[in-house]
Task: structure prediction
Amino acid sequence: MSLPPTLQAVLGLLLLVVGGDLLIRGSSRLAAALGIPPLVIGLTVVAFGTSAPEMAVSVQAALGGNSGVALGNVVGSNIFNVLFILGVSAVITPLTIQRQLIRLDVPVLVLASALVFLLCLNGALGRWEAGFLLLMGVAYTGYLAWMGIRRGPQDGPPASAAGIALGLRYRLVDLVLILLGLGILVAGASQLVEGAVALARRFGASELVIGLTLVAAGTSLPEVTTSILAALRGERDLAVGNVVGSNIFNLLFVLGAAGLATPGGVPVPPGALTFDLPVMVGVALACFPIFLTGRAISRWEGGVFLLYYGIYLALLILDASGHDSRDLLFHAVLWFALPLTVITALMGWWWERRGPGAGPRA
Result:
């Protein structure tokens, strides 16, 4: 017997909070025990685990012929992850940005975003294109794993036999916490998405809008809880790495799997080509000036991210309703708000370069 949609959504939220807490505890402790940098854990284990709901939803939607949900879920999740999750996390506590993110992971995110947009220009993401995305994802993940192994564990005093046995036991406990947390996250996201989609369809919303908003936000709630809890616990590398890694995983693995699972590929609605995909690429590009300003995301920059997500939702609503002010708001953001944000961020970076100071800004 299925629960009413509202109860499904509430149950999903509760499960996501519990699962996110278990995942943070297990992954951060395992990273410390193995001597692996928390950023690498955030970019791989945590990011891929919290993106499992996107994988399940997009593949199922593609197999069921709901291409709008499949594509909109990935595109909407990537926009939501950067603008909303990083925005909220930075408002809670300024987030530090490691050099690896600027030199490797954000460029990979921008490249993957632009590549997906180019591959979709012909109106569909075919099987060979999806396979290429999967190969890129495997290569990127393999490189991250190689870097973690190359760095090796942190140096420390020699351990006794009893100490090694105790350490192994703790690592097994941490692995159990990670697996349990991931399982609860997936179950919670499933309940939330089912309830949210059922509620949305009562109002006659389109597949693409559902995918870009409710499904995207629902499947991204593992990232929300994980990044926010990581920020509250002081695991700032994990908070940022989770978002960047999840976005890369969504583009390369989720879209790749959805494309391979669909015989004719994933059709791309015209509205996604003219608006949502360019916004996704623009959001990825916006990470460069924000991340470069003192290698941190300050509270005011987090507020800017949240403001832009609110504007994005407003544009979606105005476009769905056919309101005339949609084009006016879009051009105001494109030609005024975005350039002003970039100029302000670059000025902040230049100002910090001139004077003393380090670390995250308020």
